[in-house]
Design brief:
It is an enzyme of class 3 (hydrolase). This protein is of the alpha+beta class. It has 11 helices and 17 strands.
């Protein structure tokens, strides 16, 4: 309980502008649903990230592997240095058990075993990690191993880690494991009792993840997540003097100073577009999905901008993309979604179109004049 009180006492550190002040070399707070950045310090600075690497290791394993498949632990995996769940060469564990060991107890040996089971070798698996990072938009991230052991090529950023974590938390198994405080997996000499290395799970209301990391080069790192009243935030601190207190400070800042607003509802009609040669002259235009944005409590001013097709020609199909809705805050794009045709609009029969063209031609030749 002492830790909790100590951390709360540290949450009062803010600069003159009201934003949190942290010792961490790099830090960020991101809304997990919208992806908006609420606070950042050196967010795109590549740095060593230690065992926070294992977030990506677990994500790739969950996307590419079979949780119930078992593997025989190799001598290489069993002999890896650093933090460990004490795997023994020749014993068998399932991929799910190894992921528990990697995320909860930060087992470097579990990570190598995961890689060998899913991709045949750690090198092949690391290639998958780097490919997935590029797919997710983590452009300043390069993985050299599965566990975060020191390597000058192995770097990421506060922003990229938050981005990767945001996607990982959409995986139900990942979300469940990183929120687990204690767990038991088998071992050759009895059961292995795992205790999550993330102390926030015991000390911060709503904490539900994610991963610690510590090396001399990376310093003390923490990727954390918490959910309150339906809102989920992700905080990252890299090379922090007090990773838990500073993570609490960042999460409190996000919860206390921001709220979510729905700016569009799926199916809501925003406007009507004219349709040329259709049985109806206009088609209603709707949002493709519910659109939420995170806004400061003291500055809830947002701007909606619609970009629409200049002209539609029948036939128009229901669900056809006809434009884009963008939401801006202080001139910055914070969210967007496609605008869709709400209904089908059939094309007029050809004879009707020919008659309309004939009538139009006659009117152009013999314009009506006032007498």
């Amino acid at each position: 309980m002492f830790f909790y009180e100590e951390a709360l006492a540290a949450t009062g550190s803010f600069d003159s502008s009201g934003t949190p002040s942290v010792s961490a070399a790099a830090a960020i707070v991101m809304d997990a649903e919208t992806g908006q950045v609420l606070y950042a310090k050196n967010p795109h600075q590549p740095r060593p990230i230690a065992s926070t690497t294992k977030i990506m290791t677990a994500l790739v394993a969950l996307e590419c592997g079979n949780l119930k498949a078992s593997t025989t632990i190799s001598e290489r995996a069993a002999g890896i240095e650093g933090s460990s769940i004490y795997l023994k060469a020749g014993e068998k564990l399932t991929l799910e058990e190894l992921i528990y060991g990697a995320l909860m107890h930060s087992g470097n040996d579990a990570c190598v075993a995961i890689a060998e089971q899913v991709a045949g070798s750690e090198r092949n698996f690391v290639n998958l990690m780097n490919f997935r990072a590029r797919q997710l938009g983590a452009r300043n991230t390069t993985f050299a191993n599965t566990n975060g052991l020191p390597d000058e090529r192995h770097l990421s950023t506060a922003y990229d880690l938050a981005l990767i974590t945001r996607y990982a938390l959409k995986e139900p198994v990942f979300r469940s494991i990183v929120a687990t405080k204690t767990h038991v997996i088998p071992g050759p000499r009895g059961k292995r009792y795992l205790s999550n290395t993330n102390k926030l799970l015991w000390s911060y209301q709503g904490a539900d993840g994610v991963k610690t990391g510590t090396t001399n080069a990376a310093g003390k790192c923490l990727v954390s997540s918490a959910t309150r009243e339906g809102r989920s935030l992700i905080a990252v601190v890299l090379h922090s003097d007090d990773r838990y207190a500073e993570s609490i400070r960042l999460l409190n800042y996000g919860f206390n100073n921001y709220t979510q607003e729905r700016v569009a509802s799926q199916g809501e009609v925003f406007t009507h577009l004219e349709v040329k040669d259709g049985v109806k002259e206009k088609v209603p235009v709707t949002a493709a999905k519910d659109l939420w944005v995170t806004v400061p409590l003291n500055q809830r001013v947002i701007e909606k901008s619609m970009m629409l097709e200049q002209e539609l020609t029948a036939p128009v199909k229901k669900g056809q993309v006809v434009g884009k809705l963008q939401v801006l805050q202080q001139g910055e794009l914070v969210a967007e979604t496609n605008l869709l045709a709400r209904t089908d609009i059939e094309r007029l029969p050809e004879h009707t179109l020919q008659w309309k063209r004939f009538v139009g031609l006659v009117k152009s030749i013999f314009p009506k004049t006032d007498e």
